[in-house]
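This part of the workshop introduces the protein records we will be handling. A record pairs a protein's sequence with a compact description of its fold. Comparing a sequence with its tokens is the quickest way to learn the format. To make this concrete, we reproduce a full record directly below:
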Amino acid sequence: MANDPSTAMIEADGLCKYYGSFAAIRDVSFRIAKGEVVAFLGPNGAGKSTTMKLLTGYLSASAGRARIAGHDMSLDRLAGSERLGYLPENGPLYPDMTPLGLLEFFTEVRAMERNYARERIEAVIDLCALASVLRKPIGKLSKGFRQRVGMAQALLHEPDVLILDEPTAGLDPNQIREVRALLRKLGEEKTILLSTHILQEVEATSNRVIFIHEGRIVFDGPVGKLNEDGKGLDENYKRLTTPDRQRKSA
């Protein structure tokens, strides 16, 4: 059912993004069903972050459509954003604010009812283990804690869909294990697309993987399918992301 449009929570339909004559992505299409946790892989510059920004409505597509929970993000972005939690890589946070102040600010921006807002703030503080730094300026926090603050704001309004760009970047091994456990728990109810460079993350959190290379999708299928040839993720990552010119000359 993962490719059934009627069940899709994240849809990329022929997405293209051009900067002059340069194509950042070309004809990117996939559908992600409710409850799927999908890893989005590719080398630096392959088009992962561009695709995620198009899906969230942060960027406008040169061609194609992006939909979140059925909402066209070029025409109905506000409604789509209500269903979406987005954690960009190195996402912007207000360094002079505290984590508590930031979360309170976002509940006001989202016009959340006061009692519900208080409940959600308490819930994400617990989920993201922020109690020890609640009243410290964000600018003074470690990268790992800043990442957790970003995750907390993405989860604050209980979105159905999460799009996470490098969610474990800058975390220590213990924090990575905590985030992976959180993603597995969230994946029981939510639809998640996460970009990562860490191959172990794919096996630990995801049931499907999408590879993008030079702006195009080169693989979309179950994680287990990449192990069928006995080469594993490392070798298949290398095979799928070797530049075309190198493959032709090999």
